Inverse folding.
């Protein structure tokens, strides 16, 4: 099969179709054969797997996925890329191209119609400007996928994997780690893309947990608590939660923090996901008894 893994080939294809790269859609196409092969290996794609690819671009990664997988659904938002994909992927019979915005798709319906009772993985070179919303959509909607293997901005990958007490640790870290086990498996330089981005990238794999990492009675309260805690990083956990959107009573907070064995003078970025679950459940219990 004719692979798209060189700047010359990409320019050829773009010229033939009169296509111009859209900066607003964050289009950076992968051109390095070694990186493309590494993604397939990291994702552990087999002939038993069905793959959802987000943002296939001109199909360079899609070709490699299709050769390794059982079936691929490639979701591309840019209408101008659809004729190109139909051209570059014409030799593959196990690919379906969907011209939609992944953030507006009903994922449960998509999976139910295409992948019922199949092993499903997400593999993508994500547009950097919508990386977090796309990842959180797959996680929060709790669709039956085994993993997400995605190329993202290196800084975002670090935040997803970050541990308490580090500068990268924040609400994204907890949200991702609540649903999955994230691991950065490869750092990627700008030179493997056309056009080259201004940032370094990384391939991160999120192994989906069968159950959330911690038990929480009310997820909405849990995540609201976390947003307040990290909304004012310089404040102590007591003051951050007292002055946040939840506007929690200071005396009540003092009592809950004391009972949870959490120093009220600690900052939000030092608390573990288990400690946030403990606080959230204590608050939920109080609210439910009012």
């Amino acid at each position: 099969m004719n692979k798209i893994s060189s700047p010359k080939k990409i320019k050829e294809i773009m010229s033939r179709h009169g296509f111009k790269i859209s900066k607003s859609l964050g289009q950076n196409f992968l051109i390095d054969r070694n990186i493309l092969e590494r993604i397939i290996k990291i994702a552990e794609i087999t002939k038993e797997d069905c793959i959802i690819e987000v943002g296939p671009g001109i199909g360079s990664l899609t070709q490699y996925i299709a050769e390794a997988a059982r079936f691929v659904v490639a979701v591309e938002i840019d209408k101008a890329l659809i004729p190109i994909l139909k051209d570059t992927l014409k030799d593959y019979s196990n690919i379906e191209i969907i011209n939609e915005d992944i953030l507006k798709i009903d994922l449960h319906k998509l999976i139910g119609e295409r992948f019922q009772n199949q092993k499903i993985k997400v593999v993508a070179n994500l547009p950097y400007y919508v990386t977090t919303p796309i990842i959180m959509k797959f996680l929060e909607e709790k669709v039956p996928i085994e993993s997400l293997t995605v190329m993202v901005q290196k800084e975002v990958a670090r935040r997803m994997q970050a541990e308490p007490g580090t500068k990268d640790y924040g609400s994204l870290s907890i949200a991702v780690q609540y649903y999955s086990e994230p691991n950065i498996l490869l750092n990627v330089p700008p030179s493997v893309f056309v056009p080259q981005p201004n940032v370094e990238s990384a391939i991160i794999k999120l192994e989906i947990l069968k159950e959330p990492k911690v038990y929480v009675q009310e997820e909405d309260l849990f995540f609201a608590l976390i947003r307040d805690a990290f909304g004012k990083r310089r404040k102590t956990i007591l003051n951050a939660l007292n002055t946040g959107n939840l506007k929690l009573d200071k005396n009540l907070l003092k009592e809950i923090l004391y009972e949870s064995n959490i120093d009220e003078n600690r900052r939000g970025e030092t608390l573990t996901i288990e400690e946030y679950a403990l606080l959230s459940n204590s608050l939920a219990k109080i609210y439910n008894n009012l």
